Amino acid sequence: MRMNWRESVLISMNAAVRAVVRMGIYVGAKVYFIHEGYQGMVDGGDNIEEASWESVSSMLQVGGTVIGSARCKEFRSHEGRLKAAHQLVKRGITNLCVIGGDGSLTGANLFREEWSGLLEELVQQSLIDEEAAQNNSELHIVGMVGSIDNDFCGTDMTIGTDSALHRIIEVVDAIMTTAQSHQRTFVLEVMGRHCGYLALVSALACGADWVLIPEMPPEDGWEEHMCQKLSESRSRGSRLNIIIVAEGAIDRQGKAITVDNVKDLVVSCLGFDTRVTILGHVQRGGTPSAFDRILASRMGVEAVLALLEASDSTPACVVSLCGNQAVRLPLMECVQMTQDVQKSMDEKNFEEAVRLRGRYIICLCVYRTFLCSFNVAVLNVGAPAAGMNAAVRSAVRVGITEGHKMFAVNDGFEGFYKGQIKEIKWGDVAGWTGQGGSILGTKRTLPAKHLDKIAEQIRIHNINALLVIGGFEAFECLLQLYEARTSHEDFCIPMCMLPATISNNVPGTDLSIGADTSLNAIVETCDRIKQSASGTKRRVFIIETMGGYCGYLASVGGLAAGADTVYIYEEPFNIRDLQSNVEHLTEKMKTGIQRGLVLRNENSNENFTTDFICQLYSEEGKGVFDCRKNVLGHMQQGGAPSPFDRNFGTKIAAKAIQWISRKLKESYKDGKVFANTEDTACLLGMRRRTMAFQPVVQLKDETDFAHRIPKEQWWLKLHPLMKILAKYKTSYDVSDSGQLEPVTRIRPKKAD
Q: Among 3.90.650.10, 3.40.30.10, 3.40.50.460, 3.40.50.12280, what is the CATH number of 515-637?
């Protein structure tokens, strides 16, 4: 099968380009770059270049697009599209992978609809013959959305958005230190002319006092309300205020709200020392985040599979992300919904605009919640993970909003049985979102040996519900408390666990709080390590990652960093496999490849240690490359949480507290809470597309307790993908690939 490809306007899209090229070559296609977007397609010549495996090497860490991007007025005309069709037919290109926003994708669909007519014109003008027209009679198109604004309906996240959030949060974190010192108010403008996603999510991630977005303008009188909130924040002891404004923010009458308007308002009404910062194009640049690299790689491979399965009867589709699953949606349905958002905003039907945005509404509902019973205790268990503090802050503030009295437990269950429990109030968690580690303190102590003392503390403080945030130990703790209900009635209360561990080894969830931050640390370190060898002779790096027996960090980190080989416990290997990997890498290094990267999970094999593998590669690679090792250690566990972990922790904690509130109401009878059913001791996790509450007792059968990992792990399906992109000849399971499905429009219940 002969297939060819094309990439268009994109942002932080090199990982997608790399995945499309290498997956295309893997399936036997001939792959082309088209430089400078549609302009390159119209002009042809050197702009259309055949791609090779080596031509996409060392580009994962590079921002922007190596194949260029340009606006093209000529392609908007029929004559321009006729020229573009001629250039494609000359090279036998009949499959396009288009990476861009709704404008680029709409243009591609129009091109596809006109294709047969364009071929007829080319034949009439004697530019091509009938045979060429017949051989190129069908044009297939698959789109991937590259946009930092996350303004395309049908996908939870567009490629480039997470990297932009990283740039914003880096700036906000830096600004908060100076604002704290000088007791200042900062008004920040972020991109988003028609979409407030960056503003809203960065506001959640940094704990901003106020946010203004175009889809949901503030109610009339917002100026007084905002100033009152800023004043209350200062009266509670805060030394700074952060206000985030999307560049397209408007009021209910459609009048623009600028950062200067907001600054003048704060100065005139409150007299606060106020500064304005406009982030501008810094949001578009920089190194892509780990999330974007993985997302783009998955989307690129899915795009190739979609083109392989395309026929003349299938509509053009766009590859999207729904929860943690790649899906294919009809391109023009998504484009139409995206355009309907702007139409609703123009008609000042802002509620409809928010609903059309889809899951965006979840963030909006969470932010609205943060505006002041039962007693609910919150504690961290296990090793610290970045994002734990964001989850605690969210739980405390949502709990207070719901009318509960919130209690913080220091040092996990060790602190619980020792009575280290105190009420925690709204202001106590100010500024926690961006803090790494665990401010509450966390220990690995399990409750089994201290059940009587823990039950006593529950009675003393009249604890009616429990929220446990942590990793595998937290899962074990909740199981032990559930099983102790038969002997201790005090544990018959609603209990919920949020997965928070860098290892991502908790059953019942695809993702855990803290794992994304750790992945970013691994990827950034790998980028620097590879760069350290720039200009030297050929070199291979052996990197050891954490994770216990779970190979998530090594495997997914290897995919994001462009590793050549990954060794994990879940996929046993022997000396013959090691020898084969060395030989494969040696052959690659004899070409133009200068650097190799091998990741090893710390417990992948007790005999084939990092030292052993390094020595083996050094010996077998003599004369071709030398070898260096690096044990990343606890640097994977520290640092400020990534935007993803801040927001993931914030959203699932809010959802958990709302679940606890429902369970408390259901189980409250005769003046006391009594909850002893399986569904009152749950883990909240992401399963493919949805967030699900799962009874912990039902997860026992899914768990390998000896090795502290789930028996089935979704990310193992990405491991062959990493091998394919590293030029291994291996099989790829397409049973989980997306199928074309209709676009759904979210209609939240009135109660929401």
A: 3.40.50.460
Which of 440, 425, 430, 429 lies closest to 380 in space, CA to CA?
A: 440
Q: Which CATH superfamily is domain 161-283 in?
A: Phosphofructokinase domain (3.40.50.460)
Q: Is residue 149 part of an annotated ligand binding site? A: yes
pLDDT of residue 735: 66
CA-CA distances (angstroms) from residue 31 to 2, 17, 329, 593, 623? 9, 11, 24, 20, 33
The answer to whether 556 touches 566, Cβ cutoff 8 Å, is no
pLDDT of residue 751 exceeding 70: no
284 is in an annotated binding site: yes
Q: How far apart are CA 121 and CA 104, in angstroms?
A: 24
Q: Is 234 annotated as a binding residue?
A: no
Listed residue (229, 247, 230) closest to 179, CA to CA? 230
- For CATH 3.40.50.460, list the domain ranges present in the chain: 161-283, 515-637
Q: Is 634 annotated as a binding residue?
A: yes
171-228 tens-digit pLDDT:
999 998 888 888 899 999 999 998 999 999 999 898 899 999 999 999 999 999 999 9
The tokens for 130 are 């009938």
Residue 71 in marked binding region: yes
What letters, b where the CB count within 10 A reaches 16 and e where it falls short, cover 409-421? bbbbbbbbbbebb
Would you say 539 is a known binding-site residue? yes
DSSP, collapsed to helix, strand or coil, labels residue 604 as: coil
Which of the residues 149, 156, 527, 564 is marked catalytic?
A: 149
pLDDT at residue 367, rounded to an integer: 61
Query: Is 148 known to sit in a ligand binding site?
Result: yes
Helical axes 290-309 vs 515-532, angle rounded to 10°: 90
102 belongs to an annotated ligand binding site: yes
For the question of residue 346 being annotated catalytic, the response is no
Is residue 659 classed as helix, strand or coil in its secondary structure?
Answer: helix
Residue 191 in marked binding region? yes
pLDDT at res. 364: 60
- CA-based nearest residue to 379, from 314, 323, 443, 432: 443
The answer to whether 200 touches 213, Cβ cutoff 8 Å, is yes
Longest dimension (CA), the chain: 91
Do the beta carbons of residue 7 and residue 97 sit within 8 Å?
Answer: yes
Q: Token digits for 168? A: 């914003």
Averaged pLDDT, 373-393: 95
Contacts of 413 (CB under 8 A, 6+ apart): 379, 381, 443, 445, 446, 447, 450, 454, 477
pLDDT at 4: 40
Highest mean pLDDT among 58-62, 307-311, 509-513: 509-513
Domain(s) labelled CATH 3.40.50.450 in the chain stretch across: 12-158+288-357, 375-513+642-706
Which residues are 210's β-sheet partners? 243
- CATH node for 12-158+288-357: 3.40.50.450
To the question of whether residue 281 is assigned a binding role by annotation, the answer is yes
Q: How many C-beta atoms surround the C-beta of residue 121 within 10 A?
A: 16
The string of pLDDT tens digits covering residues 515-538 is 999 999 999 999 998 888 776 678
Which CB contacts under 8 angstroms, 24+ apart, belong to 726-730? 726/562, 726/563, 726/564, 726/565, 727/22, 727/53, 727/584, 727/588, 728/584
Lowest mean pLDDT among 347-351, 359-363, 472-476, 584-588: 359-363
Average pLDDT over residues 622-644: 91
Are 384 and 502 in contact by the 8 Å Cβ rule? The answer is: no
Q: Which CATH number fits domain 375-513+642-706: 3.10.129.10, 3.40.50.450, 3.40.50.880, 3.20.20.120?
A: 3.40.50.450
Mean pLDDT of all residues belonging to the chain: 90
Q: Is 145 annotated as a binding residue?
A: no
CA-CA distance, 562 to 566, in Å (whole number)? Answer: 10
What is the token pair recorded at 711? 């028996």
